[in-house]
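Lab notes, practical 5.
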Amino acid sequence: MSDRKFLDTVYDLDGAETTRAFYDAWSDSYDREVADNGYATPGRIADALLRFQTDRNAPVLDLGCGTGISGAALRAAGFSVLDGSDFSAEMLALARAKGIYRKLMQADMTDPMPFADAAYATIAAVGVLNPGHAPAAVLDDMIGKLPPGGVSVFSLNDHALADPSYEGRMNEHLDAGSAVLLFREHGAHLPKIDLESSVYVLRKT
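Output from the prediction step:
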């Protein structure tokens, strides 16, 4: 039987402080629980990014990096300069211990992102854009912070896909010509709980 102590309730969270406390409490068992449920999206994100970001030495921001599972997948794919941000101090402590990141920042992604425009040629958001965690408006900041030609890679799980605001916000950028869609693929996210996700790669125009 798979371990689902926290996964059973994570998509029902409401409010920043409640969510932060939840992830702090989950931090010690997070890696084990998601691995037990077949967490596939970090590897899918890294594989997708490899197709469109040829400079493996360009800094990548891992937005909502959590304990560093996503950073480990990006590092394994060859991306050598990784910074991470997350709002959970306990998650960040575990990410720091893995030695994957050049720099880690504690920040709420719904607030202004604590870095300069064009600081990163790539911004990744792996498994973080979903109801109860990060609203669709975060896509505006991700795209806005990139330089022209910069790449945003992110996932939307089935919960996010059921909320029209997420793909709707992405389509607003595509329709306005502020970004172009390079890649979209639906596939496994947490297969042991029958949850899938779509992975997207956008390039800022």
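Observations recorded by the TA: The beta strands are 60-63, 82-86, 103-106, 122-125, 151-157, 179-190, 195-204. The chain has seven helices and seven strands.
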